[in-house]
């Protein structure tokens, strides 16, 4: 295949993935509508997905003269299963888009040379973490949220961030970049999912106990709080590795300095401090619930401002190539 063919394949795979993500979201929305008609059963579990009707907390006992409860319960299971299958298929198409993007370059390279490509990578990791960790962490309830977030960010990437495939700038042509960005992408996916759990925690706490609708199947606030903590505890050491180890090594290789007080470097460190404070407060001060959720959301705000906002509000960053703009002359490496 030619480079142009790979780029075309990538663009088509992105479009196909976006459509399938959207279909997954529609399926989940039908599930939400069905949930409004199904009372929470006596079972203790709260996730809705592929575990069966009773495992989803639905009351499937027959109702005299009326089979609507059982019918709606089965619709909930079917649409939830379909939403998950579609999300998994979209994730596979998403991977094809990333592969095609990297193969389209000459020479072949990793697919994160600009903000469009990083957005593709970051959203793929969010979807992948959900698919892989869904059963282990009981994340079935997060399916519609993940589908909505991923399809929205893909639309933003395609409409406003798209850049044609181009060779990497010299500063990016390093294997340390691969290690650095892979770590950053993985931790970004973990932090984003943890932030979504914190948002739902605040919504669930404010709403209070419910017996029907989507929120009735979302875990109790204490479970959301614990899940958010586990996701943040996973992502933080990976972010530390990316920001404080591989990033400085790559910077020294590219610019002969481990730290340049570049705006992206500073905001990456600010993000690290916020998340370090979050985990430290939970471990030592016993922070739980609302205060911890607010701190987690502050961390997610700094995280995404670092990835997107800096590219548009800073004119001095040596990371200007990340937005697709030509790199600054100072971004050229001092040595190879």
Automatic annotation (TrEMBL):
One Pfam short name:
Cytochrom_C_asm
Topology versus the membrane: Multi-pass membrane protein
List each coiled-coil range.
Answer: none
- Residue ranges occupied by any Cytochrome c assembly protein domain in the UniProt entry: 112-314
Location comes to: Membrane
Q: What would be an example GO MF term here?
A: heme binding
Q: Where are the transmembrane segments?
A: 12-33, 82-103, 115-133, 145-162, 174-203, 231-251, 266-285, 292-313
Q: Out of the domains of life, which is the source?
A: Bacteria
**Alphabetic keyword roster:** Cytochrome c-type biogenesis, Membrane, Transmembrane, Transmembrane helix
UniProt entry tagged with the keyword Membrane: yes
What cellular component terms from Gene Ontology apply here? plasma membrane
State the signal peptide span.
none
Q: Which InterPro entries match?
A: Cyt_c_assembly, Cyt_c_biogenesis_CcsA, Cyt_c_biogenesis_CcsA/CcmC
Q: What is its main location?
A: membrane
Give GO terms for biological process: cytochrome complex assembly
Instruction: State the name under which the record lists this protein.
Output: C-type cytochrome biogenesis protein CcsB
Question: Which species does this protein come from?
Answer: Nocardioides islandensis
């Amino acid at each position: 295949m030619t480079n142009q063919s790979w780029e075309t394949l990538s663009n088509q795979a992105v479009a196909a993935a976006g459509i399938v993500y959207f279909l997954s979201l529609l399926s989940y929305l039908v599930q939400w509508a069905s949930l409004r008609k199904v009372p929470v059963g006596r079972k203790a579990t709260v996730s809705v997905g592929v575990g069966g009707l009773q495992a989803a907390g639905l009351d499937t006992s027959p109702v005299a003269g009326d089979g609507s409860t059982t019918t709606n319960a089965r619709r909930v299971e079917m649409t939830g299963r379909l939403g998950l299958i579609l999300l998994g298929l979209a994730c596979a198409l998403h991977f094809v888009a990333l592969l095609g993007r990297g193969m389209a370059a000459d020479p072949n390279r990793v697919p994160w040379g600009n903000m469009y490509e990083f957005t593709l990578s970051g959203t793929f990791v969010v979807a992948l973490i959900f698919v892989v960790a869904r059963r282990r962490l009981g994340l079935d309830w997060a399916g519609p949220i993940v589908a909505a977030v991923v399809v929205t960010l893909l639309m933003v990437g395609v409409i406003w961030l798209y850049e044609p495939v181009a060779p990497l700038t010299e500063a990016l042509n390093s294997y340390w970049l691969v290690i650095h960005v892979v770590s950053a992408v993985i931790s970004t996916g973990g932090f984003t999912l943890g932030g979504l759990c914190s948002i739902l925690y605040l919504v669930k706490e404010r709403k209070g106990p419910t017996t029907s609708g989507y929120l009735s199947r979302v875990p109790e606030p204490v479970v959301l709080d614990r899940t958010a903590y586990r996701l943040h505890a996973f992502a933080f050491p990976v972010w530390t590795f990316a920001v404080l180890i591989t990033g400085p090594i790559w910077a020294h290789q590219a610019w002969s300095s481990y730290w340049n007080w570049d705006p992206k470097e500073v905001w990456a460190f600010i993000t690290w401090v916020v998340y370090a404070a979050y985990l430290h407060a939970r471990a030592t001060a016993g922070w739980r619930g609302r205060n911890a959720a607010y701190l987690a959301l502050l961390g997610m705000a700094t995280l995404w401002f670092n990835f997107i906002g800096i590219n548009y509000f800073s004119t001095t960053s040596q990371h200007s190539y990340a937005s697709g703009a030509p790199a600054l002359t100072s971004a050229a490496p001092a040595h190879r």
